[in-house]
Amino acid sequence: MLPTIAVIAGTRPEALKLLPVIDALRHGGVGAVRLIASGQHQTLFDQMLPDIAPDMELGLMQEGDPPGRFLARAAAVLAEALGHVDPALAIVQGDTATAYAGALAAFRLGIPIAHVEAGLRTASIAEPFPEELFRRAIARLATLHFAPTPRARDNLLAEGVASGAVHLTGNTGIDRLMSALEDPRPSPAAEALLSGIGDGRFALTTVHRRENRGKALEGVARGISKVAHAHALPVILPLHPAPDLQPLADMLCGDPLIQLSAPIDHAAIVRLLVRAALVVTDSGGLQEEAATLGIPVVVLRTRTERMEAVEDGRAMLAGSDPEAILSAAGEMLEKGRFPRSTLFGDGAAAPRIAARIAEWLRR
C-alpha cells in the first residue's frame, strides 16, 4: 500500500508550481497524493481546474479577512484536515499564508514537512512582508528542503539547515512553463488581447503584491503610463481581482496605450510572454519565466529574492518610483532579448523532488 502524501495549496502560484510535483509523485508511484485546497485565492485557483483537482476544498477565505484572521483559521482547519488524511508527509510550496499555516498544522501533528521552493530570501524580513517571515519560519519546521537555485541552497545552509536535508532541484514553475510552451491548444484570451496589437511589440505588465498597494500604486500606475508613451509601447495589463488594486484600473482605464483585462489563466500569460518585448511586474513567477525565455524584466520592487536574474542583467529593480520605472524600462528595452537560460531551472525539477521523496519514504 502506497504511503499517503498531503499536498497543501491555496493560491494559483502554488497550484502552478505543485502540479508538476503531484504528477511526478503519481506517475512514479511514490505515494497516494491527496490535494488539500485552502481557498485562499479561490477565483484564481479555480483557473487551474481541471488540471488540478482538489481532494478536499476547505473554502477558508472570507470576504474582508485580514491576513492574521485567515492564518489562524487556516492553521486550525488544516490541522483537522491533515488529521483526517493522516499522511506520511505534507508538502507546502513557497511563502503564502496557506503554506505557513499548512506547515504549522503539520508540525503540530508531528507530520514531516517538505518545502518546495525553499531558501528564497531578501536581505530584509520586512520586504516582502509577511512572505519573508513565512518562508524563514517554514525552514525551521521542514524536514525536506527543495531549493530551486544554488543561491537558495546556500541561504538554507547559512541558516544552519543540515546539508543532508537540502536538495537542489530547480524550480517547478519552469517545469510548468515548459509544459505550457508545448501545449498546442489555442488561448482565446491571449488571442483577444493580441488582436489589437498585431505583429507590433508590447509590454506585459502585472501588479499584485502588497507593497505596491495604497500610495505606491499611484507611482506604479504613473510609471507604467510613462513607459508606454515614452517608447510608443502598448501595454497589456491583466488585472488582479484584489479590491485594493482596483484603483490601478481607475488610474489607467483612459490611457489609449494600455489595454486592461480581467484576470487570465496561465496558458494565456505564457502566450503573451513569448511575444512580449518587455515584462514589467512584481510577480516572482513572472521574473523566473521571463528570465528563462530571455525577456527583459523591470521588477516593480526594491528588493527581490530572485537576484539571479538581476545579476545576470536580465532584470532591473525599479520599485514604485515612476522615473525609476521609466529609466529601467529604457535600459532593458535597449538590451533587447536574451538567449534562453536555466537560471531558475531546466524543466526537470519535479522528477528530482519525487525521487528524493521516494528515497526519504524508503528510509
UniProtKB/TrEMBL annotation:
GO molecular function, one term: UDP-N-acetylglucosamine 2-epimerase activity
Protein name: UDP-N-acetylglucosamine 2-epimerase (non-hydrolyzing)
Gene3D superfamilies membership: Glycogen Phosphorylase B (3.40.50.2000)
Entry superkingdom: Bacteria
Stretches assigned to the UDP-N-acetylglucosamine 2-epimerase domain: 33-357
Keyword line: Isomerase
Principal EC category: isomerase
Catalyses which reaction(s): UDP-N-acetyl-alpha-D-glucosamine = UDP-N-acetyl-alpha-D-mannosamine
Family from the record: Belongs to the UDP-N-acetylglucosamine 2-epimerase family.
Organism per entry: Tardibacter chloracetimidivorans
InterPro entries: UDP_GlcNAc_Epimerase_2_dom (IPR003331), WecB-like (IPR029767)
EC number of the protein: 5.1.3.14
